[in-house]
Each structure stands twice: as C-alpha cells, then as structure tokens.
Amino acid sequence: MTIKQPSNELPHHGGKLIEFSLRYQRPIDQWVDLSTGVSPHHYPIPEIPASVWNRLPEDDDGLITAAQTYYQSNFLLPVAGSQAAIQALPNAISQTQSKIVQVLLPATGYKEHQHAWQKYAEQDIQAVLFDFYQHKPTIEQLKTADVVVVINPNNPTALSVPPSEVLTWLDHIHQDATLIIDEAFVDCTPELSVLPSFPTGVPDNLIVLRSVGKFFGLAGVRAGFCFASSLRLQIIKQHLGPWTLSGPTRYVTTHALLNSHWQKENRQRLHEEAQRMNQLLQQHFGQMAGSVKITSQILFHRVEISDSASWHHQLARLGIFTRHCDENDALRFGLPANESQWQALTRALEQLKE
C-alpha cells in the first residue's frame, strides 16, 4: 500500500501577530494589527453561567432559532467557523453528487477553498480538473463545472456581485452540479446575501456559508453556519461530528445574533470607518506614480501596487501589520481599533510617502 504524504503548502492567513512581533522585535502592544478583515469592535461578551461551562452543548439551547431569525433562512448547521465547513464540503458533496470532475474557483480569493478541493483531488477517487475565473464566471464555465465556488463579497479583492445576478448562475449549472457561496463578509452589506431569497431553505444545488467572527468581531469563538438542503446538512454534520461549537461559544453567539440594536449601531460605525479608511488610502496611494488600484469593502480594503512586498515590510517596521496578499501584488488593510491606531497608521503612511 502506498501512503501519500500530505501537501506541505498550506494557505497563508493574517492574524499571526505573535510571529510578526518576534520577527520585527516589537512588543505586541505596540502594533496596529490590520492583517485580518475582522471587525475591531467585538460584541460585548455577556456573563456566561457556570452551567454553560459545565454541561455538554445541546442543540435546543436557542442558537438555531436565533440564527434562523438573523439569517432569514431555516435550514442551517452551526459550524466551528465557516472554515470547518469549507474543509468538510468536498467529501460531503461527493456523497450526493454522481461526479466531481471540474471545480470552478475564483482566480483570486480565499485560498482555503482551493486547498480543500486540492486535498480532495489528492485522494485519487477520480481525476479533478480546476478552472478559474476573474471576478465573475462565464456562462460557458458554469455549464461545464460540477462545483462552482463564489466568494461574495470576495476576500481579498473586495469586489462583489448583486445577489440577483448570483442566483441566475443556478440556472446555468448542470442538474447535478453545486454552487457554493461563501458570504463570510456579507454582514456589513446584508443586501448582498442570497439567503433572504430562500426563507424556507435553500435548494439542493446550493450551499451558503456564513461567518460570525468577522462582523461581530468574535473570530476567537470560531462560529459560523452552513445553509444547505436537509439531506446535505445531515451529511455535513456526519463529517464534522458532534459538539462542533462549545457551550460558551453557542451562548455568546446566540446573544450576538439576537441583539439587533447592537448590530445596527455596529454596522453604521463600520460603514463610517470604512469611508475614513478609503479616504486615507486614496490620499496616500491614489496619487502615486505607476499603477495603483484601490478597492474597498467595509471590513477590509485592498491596495494593488507593484512593490507591495516592500510596502508590507516598511509598514511592519513602523508597527503597522497589514496582510500581504497571496498573489504578491497587493496589501489588504483592516480597520484600526481606536483613534490612537488611526493616528499611528496616518503617521506611518505619511512617513513612507516622503
């Protein structure tokens, strides 16, 4: 029997502040961490009863009902962040789909999707071909793909597609194909979500992923939701096993999903801060010589620039931790947490502009 060694090439992520602190010899509390797209304003953690820590998690604790109300769709499965679902989907989908020969992915996008399908292809169950699209797939690509992955809004390009257009893609994929929509960053712009179109549950050929960590600033709780048909949710649940979310995570997430007043205030605050960030980046990068392209979502902003690696390094030397995108052609900026961090970022950009 031949045992294949797993690939050592794992996708890179932001958020490795301890590693960068050691690399640049700067204490953690002296950094402005803009390396993730996580909101710098976290949902206020309620007091967690001792029983929640002591007992095993239970499905009927109110989380499902809270999620159904917040996401406006009924059939869902709590997962340990949308990342957990991304890893489970290839094998889960293969159980309900007769063939997976061609997988269509965004050329630039969250690399864990591609990594998960590449791991599936390495199992040698059947040959899998990969095709890639820029921003939007063509009709020809949709017709030939067995699995289509869409990230909306896209991370890290910050580009988005209206849900009405995304839903038309369901009409172009073949009868046995699956459309996966990753909506991890959609909470700031909920009008981009397809879920309100399916209040009683999504169709068999659609899977939608949502994240709690980004908008609610709770990346550490590792919570998200997967929306799919009842059969597919059962299969995904079998792959994930029991107790995917801890009791404290379920408790905090339930409170966050039910607090519509906080959600409204946070959404407005993030929109204002996103506008400020866009203006700041336009001021410092927009007038530079050469090809510079700035695209913005609410929680993150992308600056495509020829010497991005140098900018990433120089900003790090000044205590500004950005995300150098995988394509090595852009920087991604998250939002500062407070006015002191805003001023530190402004000073750093002004210093490097001189």
Automatic annotation (TrEMBL):
Q: Which organism is it from?
A: Vibrio syngnathi
Q: Name one Pfam family in it.
A: Aminotran_1_2
Which keywords are on file for this protein?
Aminotransferase, Pyridoxal phosphate, Transferase
Q: What gene is this protein a product of?
A: hisC_1
**Molecular function in Gene Ontology:** histidinol-phosphate transaminase activity; pyridoxal phosphate binding
Name what cofactor the protein needs: pyridoxal 5'-phosphate
- What's the name of the protein? Histidinol-phosphate aminotransferase
Q: Indicate the segments forming the Aminotransferase class I/classII large domain, all copies.
A: 73-284
Please name the InterPro entries in this protein's record. Answer: Aminotransferase_I/II_large, PyrdxlP-dep_Trfase, PyrdxlP-dep_Trfase_major, PyrdxlP-dep_Trfase_small
- What's its EC? 2.6.1.9
Top EC group:
transferase
Q: What is the lineage of its organism?
A: Bacteria, Pseudomonadati, Pseudomonadota, Gammaproteobacteria, Vibrionales
